[in-house]
Known about the structure:
- This protein has helices at residues 11-66, 69-75, 98-107, and strands spanning 76-86, 92-96, 114-126, 129-140, 143-157, 160-170.
- It has a 6-stranded mixed sheet with strand order 2-1-6-5-4-3.
- α1 (11-66) crosses α2.
- By secondary structure, the protein is of the alpha+beta class.
Amino acid sequence: MLRRVRRGYSADAAAVSLHWYSMRSRLVVLAAAFLTVAPFGRASAQATARDSVLAPVHRVFDAMRARDTVGLREVFDSTARLIGTRASANVSIRSRTPTEFLTSITTTPTDQTSDERMFDPEVRIDGPVAQVWTYYTFRAGTTFSHCGIDAVTLVRAGTTWKIVSFVWSVRTNDCTHRE
């Protein structure tokens, strides 16, 4: 079998060149595959971190509906502050400790059980500090009461996120998601 060899190249040099070209092609394909898959791994890690921050906030709302004071106490740091604000002629600000908040949940009549739902939460995380900013609606029992924004600050203690601040606005106008 005759091989054509370019001028100045031996048959061995051509074979090495062909082998290098083949290896380079494989490396390009592998790099392209990695770059295609790598962002999904990062997105998955971000989704997991986001979910771990949202979990205590969801637990608050679930525990409020269930009137579960043990579950509520577990998600709050003992030094946490809960602050509700109402926009009116005189802005009112009411600050509570977790214990005061738990008392308000247990003393609410059962037909007026607190039912809070969040929509489209934004989550920011920087190391052991996280912030959740979300629109919410609130029902007393089955009756729509109000809506607003929840701003929740969490700090990671080991592998657990604890709520250190839960601030919310209360309004009755411009409320969406009333269903």
